[in-house]
């Protein structure tokens, strides 16, 4: 039975921008598992509620429902052990948690401040209202104010990527010679930005940009084909 | 033949504070390999030069000389494959590079600004002169000025540890249920500070502090027994 996945969408149902959903889509592609994605909007809480979930990604595999991108990655690794490994062994599994935490705490925290008002522009009207209200409460200011000085924030953001850059000087992927789920985790953030904003986050000569291009090429250009910018 | 290792020392030859040497000492202990450490001072360049090296750690294993903590970890993993793994498989090997880079770029960069003047105080006189001159050139100010506002820097430093804290909420070590070399990498930074400075970097109720205490307990309290503070 084909796997199904609820995937956050914009006003255009083909615009799929959630960084966490991208982690899962890349993980499924690494495992070689086809998936049928179902467009889902922030305000469709009852759709997920019926599955006992409250946020995407949600993966439905036969009678199993799994939510949370990390839990889904662990589920896929355990359920499909004969497919290519997402973690590359127990050490890679444990250390991917650090990449996950760094991505949430550093990469996403930096990214969102440069694209958050652009996100509101690509949402369906009912979602845009919800998004603006909830995020403006979080930031304590209008989304446009959060994003206003993004040119000035760019240098600090790029500096925060330095650990990533140092690794990518010595190997093509975080996972080594080939990508692992750790690459999908970090890539999800950049793909989130790419799907919602024309703002250029990376300098053309940055090793991180070269890696992002390699990630866009994976799995037949899966991520490159997504509705977005650049 | 017993392994030998050149290990940075202070005025007291028993004070061994280099974070990179601690990475190697913890790695050797994880592998269960006894080592004879040789006190080395910054100004003894000719001692290492005779081995074709210019900085510690330097590991001498029979007729093999290996320098650089990362290269030594890879050497030990390859040369002693029947001993406990430092990386936990190929994924853990690849992702440990990110931990290594994060530690150098974020943890050490934050740490050094809070303890650098204290380092000068524990060095032998000839080393203290070299250290002050080279580090003051790097920071562009007296060491005491770098460190002067450390109380004010503490909150930002602790905030920078958030990815570490997030992981340690879900598992006792970065390596999972048991420590891997990734733990040694990060611990090296905290042990560096502990060996040179009485300054308290971590709050008592921080999960990172609980992990540091677990690391101090490993291998019969190897790191706890070191000459230092707290």
Helix/strand layout:
The structure is a homodimer of 230-residue chains.
Chain A lengths: L2 E6 L10 H12 L4 E6 L4 H5 L8 E4 L2 E4 L1 H11 L10 H33 L2 H15 L3 H6 L1 H11 L1 H7 L12 H16 L10 H15 L9
Parallel strand pairs in A: 1-2
Antiparallel strand pairs in A: 1-3, 3-4
Helix pairs in contact in A: 1-3, 1-9, 4-5, 4-7, 4-9
Descriptive labels:
homodimer, 230 residues, alpha+beta, Glutaredoxin, Glutathione S-transferase Yfyf (Class Pi), Chain A, domain 2, 57% helix, globular
What's this entry about, in short?
The first copy, chain A, is of the alpha+beta class and 230 residues long. In chain A, 57% of the residues lie in helices and 9% in strands. The model of chain A has no long low-confidence stretch (mean pLDDT 97).
Low-confidence stretches of chain A: none
CATH architecture of the largest domain in chain A: Up-down Bundle
Rg of chain A over CA atoms, rounded to whole Å, is 17 Å
CATH class category name of the largest domain in chain A: Mainly Alpha
For this entry, what is the oligomeric state of its chains? homodimer
N to C succession of SSEs of chain A: EHEHEEHHHHHHHH
For the largest sheet of chain A, list the strands in their spatial order. 2-1-3-4
Determine the mean pLDDT of chain A. Answer: 97
CATH topology title of the largest domain in chain A: Glutathione S-transferase Yfyf (Class Pi), Chain A, domain 2
Q: Quick one: overall form of chain A?
A: globular
**Total number of distinct structural domains of chain A:** 2
Structural class of chain A: alpha+beta
Beta-strand portion of chain A reads 5-15%
| Straight-line distance between termini of chain A | 35 Å
Number of separate strands of chain A? 4
Protein name (chains A, B): Glutathione S-transferase family protein
Pfam families (chains A, B): GST_C_7, GST_N_3
InterPro entries (chains A, B): Glutathione-S-Trfase_C_sf, Glutathione_S-Trfase, Glutathione_S-Trfase_N, GST_UstS-like_C, Thioredoxin-like_sf
């Amino acid at each position: 039975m084909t796997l199904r996945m609820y995937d956050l969408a914009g006003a255009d149902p083909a615009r799929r921008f959630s960084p966490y959903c991208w982690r899962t889509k890349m993980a499924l592609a690494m495992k070689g598992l086809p998936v049928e994605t179902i467009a889902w909007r922030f305000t469709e809480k009852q759709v997920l509620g019926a599955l006992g979930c409250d946020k995407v990604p949600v993966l439905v595999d036969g009678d199993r429902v799994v939510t949370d991108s990390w839990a889904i990655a662990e589920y896929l690794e355990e359920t499909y052990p004969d497919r290519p490994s997402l973690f590359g062994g127990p050490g890679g599994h444990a250390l991917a948690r650090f990449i996950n935490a760094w991505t949430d705490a550093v990469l996403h925290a930096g990214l969102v401040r440069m694209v958050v008002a652009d996100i509101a522009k690509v949402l369906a009207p009912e979602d845009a209202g919800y998004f603006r209200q909830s995020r403006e409460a979080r930031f304590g200011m209008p989304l446009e104010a959060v994003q206003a000085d993004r040119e000035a924030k760019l240098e600090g953001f790029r500096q925060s990527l330095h650990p990533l850059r140092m690794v990518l000087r010595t190997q093509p992927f975080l996972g080594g010679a080939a990508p692992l789920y750790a690459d999908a985790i970090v890539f999800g953030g950049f793909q989130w930005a790419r799907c919602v904003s024309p703002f250029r986050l990376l300098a053309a000569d940055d090793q991180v940009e070269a890696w992002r291009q390699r990630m866009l090429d994976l799995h037949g250009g899966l991520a490159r084909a997504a509705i977005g910018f650049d």
